[in-house]
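hey team, just a heads up i'm posting the complex here instead of the shared drive bc the drive is being weird again. everything in one block, sequence lines first with there labels, then the predicted structure for the whole assembly after. its two chains so it's a bit long, scroll down
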Amino acid sequence: MSAIEPFAVFDCSLARLPIGRSCSNLRELLEAIRTVPDMVIEHHMTRCVLADYFDLNEFPNELAHWCWNMLGDHMLAEQLGLIDPYQHDSINSLRAELINAIEEHIWGIDRVPSCPPGLELHLVGSRLVAYDTGERITTPTALAEALPLLSLRSYFYHVHNARRRTAGSSDDFSNWLESYGADASLVARLRKIDAHFLNLSQVRDQIIEAFRDYLPAPQLILKATA
Amino acid sequence: MQLLDRYEEVVGHHEVERLRRLASRLAGRRIVHVNSTRVGGGVAEILGWMVPLMQELGLDVHWEVISGPADFYRVTKAIHNGLQGLPVALKPSDFDLHYEVNKQNAAKLNLAGDVVVVHDPQPIFLPAFTPQGQVQRWIWRCHVDASRPNRVVWKHLAGAITRYQATIFSMAAFARPLPCPIFMIPPSIDPLSDKNGPIPEAERLETLNRFGIDPERPLLLQVSRFDHFKDPLGVIAAYRMVKPYYPELQLVLVGGPADDDPEGAEVLREVIEHAGEDKDLKILMLPPDSHRAINALQRSAIIVLQKSLKEGFGLTVTEALWKGKPVIGGACGGITLQVHDYHTGFLVHSPAGAAYRIRYLLRYSDKRERMGRTGFEFVREHFLLIRHLRDYFTTLLCLDHPGEADLVA
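-- predicted structure starts here --
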C-alpha cells in the first residue's frame, strides 16, 4: 500500500475571455461555430458548468440554453442538449457535430429565429488555471470525509477536466481508488455517474452518496487490506 | 485577526485557504492600481477593500490616484459618458487636456510595478508617458458598458489601448473586439459591508418605522435611481395590477437625490405624479451613504423588483439575492445572469409579466423561500469579493503564460 501516491486535491479557476463577438440568430451562431477558437467551443459546451449553479440540469451547455431561452428554438435546443462533448476526442470533432446539427436544422426551417435585442449570445473562451491545494488524502475513508469540503471547482477539475486530461471516461477519484485497490463496484459506481447531465452540486452529492453507501462496510473499499 | 479571517464565517475556512494558496503563486508581485478618485464611486469602493486584501495575501500592492484641474474632470466625465454611448461634445483641446494631465501624472506617480491596473478612461494614457521598462504589464480595467461607444470618443481611446497587454470588462456584453486579450471579471458584493452585512432586528424595524412602512404587511421593493431605463412606472403599474388581489400589499421605490440630473428629476416628478395619493406606495429619496437603511429595506421585502429595460450588471439584484429574496427582473443585461426562472426569481418583459410573477410568488410562500435560499447560495458561489479576488489572480497568472493553453500554477 505504501507505493500508492496519496490523492492530491486540486482546485481550479477559469479566466474568461470574451472575444468581443456575439450572435443574435441561428445563422450567426452557425458562422461562429465554424470560425471561433477552440477555447470558445470548449467554454460554451463544457466549462460553462462552472458558471452555472443550477440551470444545467435542464441543458448541459450554453448553446442549447441560449437556443431554448433566447431564440425560442426548442427543437434545436433539444438536439444540442443531447450532444455530449466528452464523447469527442477533439474540439474539432465536437465542432463538426455542432455544425452538422445546426446546418441540418436551418435547412429544414422557413424562418431563421432571432433573439430580442439585449439577449444575444456573447462568445467567450476560457483558460483553466489549476493549482495544487497542498491537501493530500491517503485512504478512501479520508477521501470520503474530505469530499463535502471540496469546492465545486475541485469537482470540475477532478471529474470533468479529468475526462479531458486522461482522454478517457474516468474521473480522478475513481482512478485513484482503482490504483488503491478499492472495491471495483465503488469504482464502477463512480464511473457510472453521468456528470455531463448534472450540475456540479449534483455531481458532488452523487459522489458523496456513492461513498456513503460503501462507508458502513469499509472492508469492501479496502479490499487490498482485507 | 486578519481581514480575510472575517470572511471565513461567510464562505468557509477552506474557501479562504484556497484563495491564500492561489495568491501564494503571486507572492511579492508588485501591483499598482490607478484610478481618478480615492473616495466616492464604485471603483474607489472596490479598491477600498481590494488593495488591503491583496496586500494581506502577500502581493505588494499600492493604489495611486491621478489628479488634475477641474476642467480635466469635466472632460473625463464626458469621455466616460461617450464610452457608454451617450452623445458628447468634445473639442480637440479637450482631448489635448486629457493627454497633458496623463503626462503630468505619469511623471509624478509611483508606477514602477510588475503590473499596473488602470481603471476606466481617466488615466488611460499613462502607458504612453511612462518610461519603457518601468512597468512590465499594463492592464486596462473598464468598469462600464463600452460595447457601443461614441465614435469620436472611441477613436480617442483606441490609440491608448494598443499599449496595454490586456483589458478587463465586467461582462462579455460590455466588450468589443480589441487587439489585446479581453478578460471578464464580473463585479461582486462585500457580504460584511453596511449594505450587505447582517443587521439587528431592532434596527430593521426602526428603519421601517422611520419610513412609515408596516412591518406586518408584504412589501415590494425596487432600489435604483429614477431613470426611464429602470422603469419605475412599470413597477407601479405592476403593483396596481396586483393590489386588488392583495390589498395589504405595499410598494417602496428607493432612489437617490436627482438634483444634479435634470433627466432624473423629470422622471422622479413623473413617478411622484403617477404614485398619486396611495399611502401604501412610497417614494424614498435617500442620501448616497444610506447603506444600512437600504440593507434594512431589502431584508424587509417579500419580493425585490429590478424591472429594468436596460441594465449594466445590476448589483442591486445581487444584493437582494444575497438577502434571500426572490427577484423579479427585466430580461436585460446582467439581470439575465442572476435571475433564473423558478430558481432565483423570474425574468419579465412587461408590467403585466411582473404583476403575474408577483401574484405567483405571493401565492406560493414555499417557492419564495426556496428561491431565496437558492439565490443566497448562488451569490455566495459566484458574486462575493472572494471570487472577485480569485478572478484577478487567475488573470495575472494567465498573463504570465500568454496563449490559449490551460495551466497548472
